[in-house]
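Entry 14. Structure prediction run on the chain below.
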Amino acid sequence: NINTTTSNGDINFTSTLGTFNLNSANNNITVNGGVNEKIIIKSTLGTSNETIKLESLVGGITTIVKQDVNTTTSNGNINFTSTLGNINISGPIINVGNDNITSTINIGNSGDTINITGTSVNITGTSINIAGTNIDISGIKTTDLIVDNKLITLNKISTGSGTARGAGIQIRDNNNDTISYIKTNTTGTGF
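Output returned:
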């Protein structure tokens, strides 16, 4: 083993011209901080093309923490990119944009497929706008529905004669879904 220890100062490894490498062929490289200490990896000089990189050519990179993980940039972007695999974020509660900053949150890009799956999906906001050429929504439940458009079309995608017979609006009362209704008649020529 090679042990480098200081009790009250810093240990500095510096390369002014090239690259500083820590390599282990068979084992781990461990960097430990004490109870009240920090482990700082910093790049303060160099061109905009130089970065701090964590790279694993064979296995994965695992980060285990007991406290919060804070990633902050004051004048740039934070990018998570995977060209071959998935980027997975999991946890009991995942918050996006849950801070004191008013943010614009963009999900997806042109040509993307976005899937939102859950037992309960809640969308809350003062103004919610959903726009698209074809919007398919099944099982809508609302307390009050306000439709700005003057026309509601029922049975729009069907073709052929007789498909709209029985289509209309049902009003439930006294445990009966069809106690009152407005429906097309059996010939499709009226209500």
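The radius of gyration is 30 Å.
Filed with the rest of this week's runs.
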